[in-house]
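agent> fetching stored inputs for the copper (II) ion docking request
agent> found them:
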Amino acid sequence: MTHYTATGLDSRKLAFWAFIGSECLLFGSLISTYLVYKGRSVRGPTPQEILNIPLTSVSTFVLLTSSLAMVLALAAVARGDKLWSRVWLFSTAFLGSIFLGFQAYEFTEFVHNGLTITTNLFGSTFYTLTGTHGAHVAVGVIWLLTLLVRSFQGKLGPDKALNVEIAGLYWHFVDVVWIVIFTVVYLIQ
Amino acid sequence: MATAVAEVKAEKASLGSTLWSWLTTTDHKRIGILYGVTAFVFFLIGGLEALIIRAQLAHSGNDLVSAETFNQLFTMHGTTMIFLAVMPLSAAFFNYIVPLQIGARDVAFPRLNAFSYWVFLFGGLLLNASFLFGAAPDGGWFGYPNLTSKQYSPGLNIDFWVIGLQVLGIASLAAGFNFVVTIINLRAPGMRMMRLPVFTWMTLVTQFLVITAFPVITVALVFLMFDRFFGTTFYSTAAGGDLLLWQHLFWLFGHPEVYILILPAMGIVSEVLPTFSRKPLFGYAVVVYSGLLIGVMGWGVWAHHMFAVGMGPIADSVFSATTMLIAIPTGVKIFNWLATMWGGQVQFRTPMLFALGFIAMFIIGGLSGVMHSSAAADLQQTDTYFVVAHIHYVLFGGAIQGIFAGIYYWWPKITGRLMNEKLGKWHFWLSFIGMNLAFFPMHFIGLLGMPRRIYTYSPELGLDTLNLVSTVGAFLIGISVLIFIYNVWWTRRHGEVAGNDPWRAATLEWTIPSPPPPYNFSVIPEVVSRLPRWSVTQMKAIPEVPPEPIHLPGGSYWPVVTAFGILVMAAGALLHSLWVVLLGGAVLVVGIYAWAFEPFEV
Amino acid sequence: MSDTARHEHQGHASTGTYLAVAAVLTIITLVEVGVFYVPAFQPVLVPILLVLSAAKFALVVMFYMHLKFDHRLFTLIFSLPLLLALGVAIALLFLFGAFVLG
Ligand SMILES: [Cu+2]
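agent> prediction call returned; pasting tokens
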């Protein structure tokens, strides 16, 4: 399993940080587009009319909490604590699912209020940005559930902590992207 | 099942070069060869498109092809040469040479490497399949909306382009992560960063640009795809959108892409020149740092492609200035190359000729590039053949000549035989004369007022002679490529056997047999200097036979299956069939899981 | 493997730190939503929110993603693209006249 590497760092972890760097430019482009097009829609609904701050504040809190569960899951796996690795992995995935539920509810509400992806520039940029983020959360949930299954199969011992750490990096990155989206899309209107 | 797989793998080594072993290979050398051969075929297709374009433009009022076909030809020529020829030809060298130069047995993620290749192959086939439907992309290689908007291009043409490029982007990104990690992490003991061969350094910078620039074009393409498929309004002025958004996002990618195309060739030249001057590269550190600087500054110049759109004096001035500045590290490299030859014992072998051709032509292309950096002058040149001249001096005179230098240089390492020198020189001189005949007149054609991307022109323009000269030059290049192909065929049988190090070169790849054994290095070398084969402190010799058994990763068919899932998804998107997309997605997911849980020791 | 794993995890923060970070993140989020609703903050809302959001970003990256304790190469390979993304965003906003409108 262990290999000599020139830096002493694990190759998968290094690759994953490079991937996260690359994702910065993906979300950077999406967020830039949202900001560039802000206020340019020729018809409503506008962000002020439609964004639900209390609801999104709660879902933001949920996602932040899931990050806490994630670090605790990693710590549990690393010290070989089977029960708590499962509890925290499940919690993380569960909280992620709740976040997705909030997003599904939010999207449905918006559509009812007349905002679809084709309605105006706000709709196009909003759904593309938050939808891409939501897709990342969904992939993360599936990833975490896979790890949970591996744990129940008894194949997630402390020697596999790196697998959890990398999943965690992904999860936290998706979280920090949301921190930015919550501010620039929801709070700065 | 698991045992069956294991048996197939165990058997594989003895089966040799059967189709199955190539489909499942994870050996960086074989993947390098796959990249090289595939990309060369695409290079021929792109070249054929260019020849038809030049035949059409040979004289005024010609009607060899229709305007419609002409649009498809120049779009596919540009797209093919950039994404399916130059990038993957460079990738062939990254794959084959970089692990050898750093003293590694493979790349960091061999299966991801195979995956990159298959996705690239499928993306290239998908793009070219458009010809079968008579709907090849026709919006130019930079696909500006609203030319590419549904309203003005309702056919499948642009759909093929949008989806093909997204697929190719996946291949480039996967390879990008792989090589960044390979170069940082798989260096042999003692191979410090400042001992890396310059080609490997330039590969690292290139891959950094790939992993940062490709997400941006992916986003731009997703917007265009959504506009075309779902009726979003990203590039719709009626809905308040701005066509310049595409141009900014595209060139934010497009300019780093220029360096993605040229830096590998610069790296190759930096290997070839010292070898055939019998002198170490002059100012190694400066060449490396200039490469790094180009990589970073390459992000700050993109809008020089957009001086004609009216960005205002501040933006124009800033991008003029940054573009002029980036010429400095590029110029520094040229002086370093010249100084390398100064006082050396220069040997004019074929790789060296191409390297010298690279320097000469790249200077001309670089100078016309600096001319574009002046916003005022650029207004005169934008959208004329002057720009076509510039890009071909940089990409043919630069990148392609650099790649041919690499092919002649590393051919003996890869095949064990030296290519024919006489044919090589014919190839070089014909292509050198041909390219100058083809592209130099384009400077004048452009300044005299001929716009690019028009399928014909009137005799009153008075450009018949210059255009004919250009066409003759293009066909000379075509003949030179045929000579190269003949040389390859000849070398297979009659090429001189190379031995480990036919050029008496300095770097690590020449310490091992040609072609290298599957494990590359019988023992992992201990590197003691930047020029292991030239320095006084000799490194320990590498034994002919491995002193102890070497573990080699077996093959895997999951990379090709996973890549196939992506192809099915792309085809489903083209057909607007959700079911096919979901089917492809299912194959993708199965592929990823099987891949993740497959026992595979690197 | 277990050896390197143990070695790496020595550097990681403790559960107490994680909880403290979570508490700070929650408080910042509450403050963010709070200032959003207070009319008095309206003129300086944007800078305040950007600073708070950057603080949250930094906390998660440094502690939850361990960049503070990890090898500097990871920081480099992450922050270079991050800075590029930031630069691109600022440049695009400038080019599309967002700063002129104010
Ligand atoms: Cu450029």
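agent> quick read of the result: The interface with chain B takes residues 3-7, 9, 11, 14-15, 18-19, 21-23, 25-26, 29-30, 33, 36-37, 40-42, 117-118, 120-121, 123-125, 128, 146 of chain A (CB under 8 Å).
agent> awaiting further instructions
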